[in-house]
Specification:
about 200 residues, alpha/beta, 7-stranded mixed sheet, about 30% helix
Length: about 200
């Protein structure tokens, strides 16, 4: 003992690692979001858009986009000393959706990133997570020059359940993205708590 205190150092806390998916339509800002929040250099699997893919890649509203994710984006963020999030961005085009099932394995929850200029592109991601019972938050990426709509208007347009969180964000801004991820974690934890409360007792 030294001055009445143990000389042993406290063991470092082993952080809990949670997996979060980021999904949404083509060109909605998934790669930007992962890159904005990641504390490590994000892993990206992007390819240049080609003339061959032009007939199947709808670039209306995102004409300046020159690359596309073909497998996933990956980043990491430490929210607290004991909580680390691994963030996986999914590819947006229909032809890569077969990868979603693998990426979704073990996910705590998801972000459905939406663009009000192409809101219908979010339907597939919303349906995907609803069908699989994966908790998700809808984050509206507020692009410059895009029309702004009240949250309830977007909620109605996407036909979201009342319990699904919907937030406005800037996918380029780290603090804005952190708020989105915190919303996902809190929503998933609340869902898990509700399931435990309603679970039948033996």
């Amino acid at each position: 003992m030294v001055f009445g205190r143990s000389s042993r150092r406290q063991r470092p806390v082993d952080p809990v690692a949670l997996k979060i998916l980021v999904a949404g339509g083509f060109g909605v800002g998934k790669t930007t979001l992962v890159g904005a929040v990641s504390e490590i250099r994000p892993l990206r699997t992007e390819e240049v858009l080609s003339e061959v893919g032009r007939p199947v890649d709808d670039t209306d509203g995102v004409e300046a986009k020159t690359t596309t994710t073909v497998a996933m984006d990956f980043g990491r963020i430490t929210l607290r000393e004991d909580l680390v999030l691994y963030v996986f961005g999914t590819p947006g085009q229909d032809r890569f959706w077969f990868l979603w099932d693998e990426l979704a394995q073990g996910a705590l929850g998801a972000v459905v990133l939406a663009d009000t200029r192409r809101l219908a592109d979010s339907f597939a991601a919303v349906d995907y997570f609803e069908r699989r019972g994966i908790p998700f938050t809808v984050a509206v990426n507020c692009f410059e020059g895009a029309d702004r709509f009240p949250g309830e208007t977007v909620r109605t347009a996407l036909d979201l359940d009342p319990g699904v969180p919907l937030v406005m964000c800037d996918a380029r801004d780290r603090e804005s993205v952190k708020e989105v991820l915190v919303s996902v974690v809190e929503h998933a934890m609340n869902r898990a708590s509700q399931r435990r409360e309603h679970a039948p007792t033996s």
